[in-house]
Amino acid sequence: MLQRRQLPNLNALRAFESAARLLNFRMASEELNITHSAISHHIRNLEDQLGVKLFNRAGRNVVLTESGILYLPILSDCFDRIAEGTRLVQSRERPKTLIVQVYITVAMYWLLPRIHDFFQASKGIQAQLNTSYLDWDFDRSGTDVGIIWATKKDPDLVYLHLAEARLSPMCHKDIVMGEHPLQEPKDLLNHHILQLFNHNRDWAMWFKEAGVEDWAPDQAITYDNYLLALEAASKGHGVAMTNSPFATPRDTNENLVRPFGSHSCHSGDWYLVCKKELADSPKVKAFYKWIMGELGNEEGGD
Q: Average pLDDT of 141-163?
């Protein structure tokens, strides 16, 4: 005979998980859109049902007991899995909607000019873009697929290879033949280097491959994304790095040029990433096929 699950009240569990995670009853009440007294009531009832104390008062603050510390990650993981499962079910029931995680630079320079073409080619699949400025890791909880730059893989995800990531500098065309012309890579040391603080190895890799040893990261002006660095470069404020083929301006800014032509270095790879459960879905297959077709067209036009 199967044993019946003995589960506490779901609302009480949600109240505890929120209050324990935030360590604040008022913030938990705002997150769950219920009153402060309701949070306190739910937690009292939960403690009574479990027969253990979950919080201790410390003046106006609350702290978790050892039992509370043990219980919190278990509940948080359960709620995360429920939320992820819910989104997965919803995604399968929305065959004409694809939520795409995309870095803001990739969205502006590569995807937005083409996304209407995908809608037509896929016979009506609507791509909803979830843009990110900083985080390159795949958000499995809120998206279906992501165009992600990666050097290592999560074994719980599917990675469909799109292209090699190639680093190359870009700057305003007037800088190339200006007061300090750019004739060889070491000439970059006479100019402001525009660097991403969360991708500060880009320039180090490029300079190393180009044989330039005198550059140090603290010589650079830092930004938090390629888009801002390239915008500054387009105004003549220095030399920025691009990460082809997705994080590179094309016809969007005629002022930007590559001072050393096709000279570039390999920095990793671009992938279309998704959860295993969605890898064989028609909408993911259609998006991958479309991207590969677009990349093929670019190569054919070069």
A: 89
